[in-house]
Amino acid sequence: MEMDLKNYWSSVFFLFLVVVLWLSCATAEIHFHEFVVRATPVKRLCETRSIITVNGQYPGPTIEARNGDALVVDVVNRANYNVTIHWHGIRQLRTAWADGPEFVTQCPIRPGGRYTYRFRIEEQEGTLWWHAHSSWLRATVHGAIVVYPKLGSSYPFPNPDREHRVILGDWWNEDPVRVIERALRTGADPNVSDALTINGQPGDLYRCSRKETTVFPVTSGETNLFRFINAGLNSELFVGIAGHSMTVVAADGVYVKHFDTTILMLAPGQTTDVLLTADSPAGCYYMAAHAYESAQGTAFDNTTTTAILDYLDPPPLHKAVANRTRQPAFPVLPDFNDTSAAYAFASSFRSAVPVTLPGPVDHHLFFTVGLGLFDCPPGQVCGGPNGTILTASMNNVSFQTPTGASILEAYLRGVPAVFTADFPAVPPVRFNYTAESVSRDLWQPTAATKVYQVKYGSVLEVVMQGTSILTSEEHPMHIHGYHFYVLATGFGNFDRRRDAARFNLVDPPLRNTVGVPANGWAVVRFVADNPGAWLVHCHLENHMSWGLAMVFLVENGVGESQSLEPPPADLPLCV
Ligand code: C2O
User: How far is the centre of ligand 1, averaged over its atoms, from the C-alpha of 139 (Å)?
Assistant: First the structure.
């Protein structure tokens, strides 16, 4: 009898397992999208301009999917620019061909051309985003990716009553591609943006913008999930909402240990999900964002973008009040240069689940990240400081984007002279990286295309060390194809003997973009378990344009599951 019962229960359990497995396979979906990249007239700041969009939308369309789904995005280029699309934060396991950075994993889609990106979302959920990865097209070619939990599972917090997407961006009264091309030609700093935006709208504080200000409807007592994305090119942003505090629940598409805050700081590339309960008196409240400018004495966009939280209930009274005054309360934002506020916020992130840290470390890497200057070629006039050319580098190598073939293709087909595999593991010269004045001899990097090559499965620990060359500034460093544990960040020169004690080995957050504090450092660790060529770069677009980038080349492992898929037949080539 006892035996039978046991059998009975194990068959029930077995059946249950079969059903669960069947459900999880049967519910994975394939989502098809067509992205038509084209010029679109858009009116902002009193002027109508032609900008490059996807499907005529700015910001672009949101991609919604569930963890486990597959995406097929057919990108049709009807613009007069080369274009590629990157799926920021999607791991692209074995599908590096779909990652997007031009001349790293593919050649650009030429005007009139098309390319279909095919990839899976594997064990990821939360807020990610997509953006152009060619010149400065990202300014207007971007949108959200929202990955919901698998069917039958739910958020690790009570289901919110309402969800909102908040895409922070910046706006130029000029074609952003022109802005950077002119800067690179002259060696000068690119112009700063003319406005900051929330969901494509500058908001009440700018000319001709009041009518279009973004409104987020809320209802008293309800819980809202706000998904923030900083899609801007060059501004790190403080964000606040008057009269409300927020509970941070996720960042970069990974759940984190909850914490309460009244301000957020997002660097370009980062996402943050927060819960907000509409528990203030019914009315209108400003959401506002302005720059966190970590550099001293450089020009930056010091304007403030706003949106409005509008309580939908109880209608007559508050509508009357709101319409009469429409002077919503304004949040308190930290000062532009408030590094302690930015650092305190960035240091609040912890993993939501216990972490088994990968180890032992196979590659201890130490990369400097910072700016520099090239001398002006004889006979030319250059627009950088004292007639120089502005540049940037990692370990004194200023990344040169190849032109003849993508790095990934060159690697697999053995195309010579596209890159060299000698990116240095440590700076070629050790110096006092954060000194008040670094010798001018160290300001000029080497321009080259160098990769750091590792075996499949190696454990990498990277110290990213900011420098004070020219100006110290926070650098939001992004690694393609991976999420990494942020073990610690700090100020000054990293010193392993002293600073290893500060590593969070228990619950470090898993991110894809980490701010290396101004004149400071960040230490990250990850397993190189995704074969391909993976760009590492500062997500401030001006710095990336200057060469603040490098590439990890990760070899195939053993067998199909550890190897890159074959290149798609329609992969754009350079010829
Ligand atoms: Cu948002 Cu190269 O990345």
Answer: 12
Residues framing ligand 1 (Cβ under 6 A): 86, 88, 101, 131, 133, 269, 478, 480, 535, 537, 539
Task: Tell me how far the alpha carbon of residue 28 lies from the centroid of ligand 1, in angstroms.
Answer: 27
Q: What is the pLDDT of residues 550-574, one digit of tens each?
A: 999 999 999 999 999 999 999 999 8
- The DSSP letter of residue 450 is B
pLDDT at 297: 85
**What is the signed CA dihedral for 289, 295, 299, 304, rounded to 10 degrees?**
10
Is the whole model's pTM more than 0.90, yes or no?
A: yes
Cα 304 to Cα 142: distance, rounded to the nearest angstrom: 21
- DSSP secondary structure letter of residue 10: H
**Could you tell me the two tokens for 155?**
């958020």
For the chain of 575 residues, list the mean pLDDT of each consecutive stretch of 10: 61 65 68 98 97 98 98 98 98 98 98 98 97 98 98 96 98 98 97 98 97 96 98 98 98 98 98 97 95 94 97 65 68 98 98 96 98 96 96 98 96 96 98 95 97 98 98 97 98 98 97 98 98 98 98 98 98 90
Q: Which CATH architecture has domain 157-351?
A: Sandwich (2.60)
**Residue 423: closest CA among 476, 460, 457, 377:** 460
Q: Whose CA is nearest to atom 3 of ligand 1?
A: 88
Q: How far is the CA of 269 from the centre of ligand 1 (A)?
A: 7
Alpha helices in 142-205 (DSSP H): 176-186
Q: Which two tokens stand for residue 260?
A: 């309460």
List C-alpha distances in Å: 498 to 70, 492, 494.
Answer: 45, 12, 8
Q: State in Å: Cα 282 to ligand 1 middle.
A: 39
Of 36, 120, 26, the C-alpha closest to 85 is 36
CATH superfamily of 363-562: Cupredoxins -  blue copper proteins (2.60.40.420)
Q: What's the one-letter identity of residue 240?
A: G
CATH superfamily, domain at 1-154: Cupredoxins -  blue copper proteins (2.60.40.420)
What separation in Å is there between the alpha carbon of 539 and the centre of ligand 1?
6
Q: Is the dihedral of CA 65, 38, 542, 241 positive or negative?
A: negative
Write the burial class of residue 215 (CB in 10 Å: 0-12 exposed, 13-18 middle, 19+ buried): middle
pLDDT of residue 575: 73
Which of ligand 1's atoms lies nearest the C-alpha of 100? Answer: 2
Q: What is the pLDDT of residue 327?
A: 83
Note the pLDDT tens digit of each residue in 64-74. 999 999 999 99
Q: Where exactly does CATH 2.60.40.420 map onto the chain?
A: 1-154, 157-351, 363-562
